[in-house]
Amino acid sequence: MSETNAAAVDTFMQNLQERCEGLFYMSESEYPLEPFIFEVPDAAAITNAEVLKLAGQPQESFLEVVDLPYFLRNQTADVPDADEFIQDITRRFRELQTYMQAQLPDVKVYRIGKHEVQVYALGKLNQTQLAGFKTVSVET
Questions:
Q1: Nearby residues of 50 by Cβ (< 8 Å), 6 or more positions away
Q2: pTM
Q3: pLDDT tens-digit profile of 23-44?
Q4: Cβ neighbours for 101, distance < 8 A, ≥ 6 positions apart
Q5: Please, what are the domains in the chain?
Q6: Nearest alpha-carbon partner for 89 in 98, 100, 78
């Protein structure tokens, strides 16, 4: 990777880290959003089987793919009579969603499992890297 590309990746990850800092995905529990990068041979040709492998999950794992706005719909929704703290969290989730959609072509959310769901929001950062955030959604 060239120095220019490495600098662009570093800048992207720093910006993503800042946007994820202090955000928790709310389900039946709360888990932080953790930025990450996966190295892959061809980011444009990623398959569900490769995502399972990258996530360290068995190939027979239940996998659902959704778009980012759908996944974050509860975190970005207006809450009537919300206090200032909730309004700020909602705004930050919206900014994170906008940033990821602008910076990562074809960002998708891979949900692995059924009750303690491992979640990977992934998009193509460049030809050999997928980036985004991971979290957990507890659903019983």
A1: 40
A2: 0.93
A3: 999 999 999 999 999 999 999 9
A4: 68, 107
A5: 1-138 (3.40.1460.10)
A6: 78
